[in-house]
Request: fold
Amino acid sequence: LYTLIAKALTNSFEFEVSNKILWEVLKIREDYRDARIIFAYNKIREWEPKKWLNILIWAESIDPSKPEIQFYKAFAYQDLWDLIKAKHNFLIALKNWYEPKSQIYQKLAEINYQEWDFWNAIDYYKKMLAENSDKIEYFLLPFDIAVEKLHDNVLALKIAEWANRRHPENALSNSILWYWYFLNSKNNIWNLEKAEISLKKSFKLNPNLARNFLYIWEISMKKWQIANALKQFEIAYKKDPNWKIWEKAIRFYNELIK
Reply:
């Protein structure tokens, strides 16, 4: 029972509380495999992957068919930047029927993105979204990849429309939709009108959404409206200073001056 409670806490990202419970369990039964597996995973999530990886390797030697072991091992290898072993263990966990599959698809997408394999990253993101599209945030990186890395307008529109169908009253879904319509509004008055509708809706739903201001900054930069661009960038940064806004800005600026 205590181990099940600890696992529920782990799933809620309460790693420290979970480990306090597991520690009491392990003081009674030091060889309790499931408790040790979850304990090791919590420690990995607390940035101690190398130290606790051996526990998972030990657990796998006892039961190689348990998918949670491969899943947690993959996490550790990814934190250690051993992406080949991370990918291998995620795929084994998938083969062993790990649930929810969406978590593995998301991690495989991340690894392929880290390896600059953007097409495979997109494929895994689409699989992830087919399994779980409950959060609008799940759509954002696939959309950015389609626009910025693959320059695939058709794919980007499909992702934006999918996000908007799934989350019609969300400022972010309307933000990526208006941005796509605007990017593709040259000589197309209908796209320009659709962009305006989605832009107004996005601002109405959330007038402080940093992504909207960043998109306006990007458009202003393309038009060389530098004063307005700087103003929009400053607003975006103030709205969300923790967002990776500098990284996106630098990447876009480098593309612009090529």
About this structure: The chain has 15 helices and no strands. The mean pLDDT is 78. The radius of gyration is 22 Å.
